[in-house]
Amino acid sequence: MQPVLGRTGESLWTKALASAIAPAVDCSREFRAIAQAEGAINSFRWGFAVKVAVLGLGLMGAPLAGRLLETGAQVVVWNRTGAKAQQLQDRGAIAVDSVTTALERSEVAIAMVSDGAALREILLTDPARSALAGKTIIQMGTIAPDESRAIAAEVTAAGGEYLEAPVLGSIPEAKQGTLLLMVGSTAEQFARWRPLLQTFGPEPLHAGPVGAGAALKLAMNQLIVTLTTGFAASLGLVQREGVPVEAFLSILRSSALYAPTFDKKLQRMLDRNFENPNFPTKHLLKDANLFASAAEAAGVDARAVVAAGRIIEGAIAQGHGNGDYSAIFDVICPQGWEKAEG
Description:
three-stranded mixed beta sheet; 9 strands
């Protein structure tokens, strides 16, 4: 049975629904107490108890699984390192030791892994491939459009269904359910799984068939690359020339050139503090390279992104691969520099 109802609602809606349905199903005090519990209400919102697997519990996979648990879904989790599943188990998730078992115990599986190669490894090698029949895979990581289409074809050949729903946003938005989702699928798949996707973001966008969501995601992440690189260069210049940073930001914030990401990364750059990232530098390099390859294949000149990629490589060479991507500031505006005399 497929999801039949809509988006996750607020607490007032939840209370109203509880009072409306409880008398119709069972007027007992016990049932009303159960119906008022968030998990029970969400079961009625969906129309059935959804069984969802989450494959990959990294920076984004874990909060996605947490959001699902909050809706009352039955959640099965898998990760290469089982220790990451413990906190989710404490919240009610079922941890399993193989992708095959995760697929067998769920109706739909959300994959949030690092790249296309990792996705192929977990889904398209035996015995996981044999467990794909009758299952739906929702790919939510960042991979190339051609990769997504190729994996979709193999999942379909194995008897499963595949759609993509990469996201814009990071850990805070994943926890709050305010991500921006870019869906590549058939119209029927989008309609069927939209209620599930709304767990993670209120208004998923149907971009087109498989590949369209992946392309849109790369287009967005390319802007992270070039906007952050450009901002770091401007910040470095005004600092070197002795212009107060607040004067620079005052003009920038009042102009059409401003992007909110500038303020999000400003303090990290000023403090050169790149610890505890929401999005590590190594992942930004992967996305820059994916965009450059996809752009080249589409006849789009991506030399600006390639050049920015070299700067990102420099940050990784300095040991910032697992740090926040604002570490590119250390390459663009290195410490210890002194202006030459004369």
